[in-house]
Amino acid sequence: MVNITILVENTVPLSYLTGEHGFAALVETDRAKLLFDVGNKGTLFENSRLLDVNLKDIDAVVLSHGHYDHTGALIALLEETGPKRIYAHSNLFARRVVELGGGSYRETGCPYSRQQIESAGGELTFID
Questions:
Q1: Who is most buried in 19, 63, 107, 115, counting CB within 10 A?
Q2: Residue 96 backbone class (left: φ over 0; alpha: ψ -120 to 50; beta: rest)
Q3: What is the pLDDT of residue 38?
């Protein structure tokens, strides 16, 4: 059995859910409950409550890559759920920027350092 519940996405199929630039999905199997990405901000928590998903029940977090819209709610998640194992690519903290023109840039990478994540209870495991 595999069940996937989309918790954060740009569009929403149900009028009572909130859309957000970013992504998060709960992946449930017979063996584990994994949160695949965490979205950007509070939409993860709002939609989880509305869909009756208890984030404290997740076994681990998998981060697909280090953009803010996939990692932004990570510290808040750890504060709400307690320590969690986090699986991520070793480039999680690589600098990511988007050029805005005129020589200006905006940071688009993970908004947290390794130390911040570990201090909040994240147990990082890097996968190449």
A1: 63
A2: beta
A3: 98
